[in-house]
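Quick illustration, no need to memorize.
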Amino acid sequence: MEEKTFNKRNLIIIIAGIILFFAAFIYSYNVYKSEGEKRSVFVEKTPEGKTDFIEIMAYIVSIDPIKGDMTVRLDFQPKGSLADEKGVLNQEVDLFVNSITGKQEHTFPKGKIINAIDATLNLYDGLVTDYPFDKHKADLTVVTTSKQKHLKTENTSEGEEETGIDNTINFAGSVTGYKIDANLENNNPDYFTELNIIIERAGSAKFFSVLVMIIMWVLILMLLLLIFDIVVRGRKIEIAMFTFASAMLFAFPAFRNMMPLSPPIGAFPDYIAFFWAEGMAAVTLVVLISTWFARKA
């Protein structure tokens, strides 16, 4: 009778475990699906009834908080009387973009198309050493103008005058490992587009980084218990203990490097967990060897 009850209890535990596993799996999948939407951004500046403007399609190519920059690719499509149906310009267009590398000012002559441009933006207001809780900002500024010739009059001489060409923007940002947000500065003229971008780590990156730190601390506690058991309680030293401590000494750097998009040594997780874990593994190994020699003597 007892054996029947025991088997029935085990069966219930197994079934409950399977149900919990599938529930956790489904939850994890739903988090993945929702995070893709949460970490992406789409910002649109509409032409508001205008027919002659340059449509800018911008999307993030890469983000590098360690170098402190991000790359945005800009595609341009002139609309209305600015170009023909093939996108060939009917007038010269001057373009300014606040790239920190390469050219900032570009001139596209009449009879040509506007080629795509990669702009490198500066990341500011953030410290990569705060990983995975670092937060950075970047600004994208695009100005489109054209030189219009005017004839000589009684009051003016013949020459060229810089006039603005209206532009709109469709900005999309989605990079694995990062959560991106953006908003338009609305107090600028129509030929001046300023986009403020905010970048932080995605929820999955934060979760996994914290999980790695927790794992390190759990292993640290195991090492502390091992030392306590040997030194205080006088437990016999076994060869497997040397293997465990030595393995941890080399495993902790691998754990640390498992953190997604982690910066070099010196970041927040290193001071919170990694340095402690690596130091404790080394101390444990030294104490084991010293105690082993002392007891042998």
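Helices lie at 2-38, 203-231, 239-257, 268-296.
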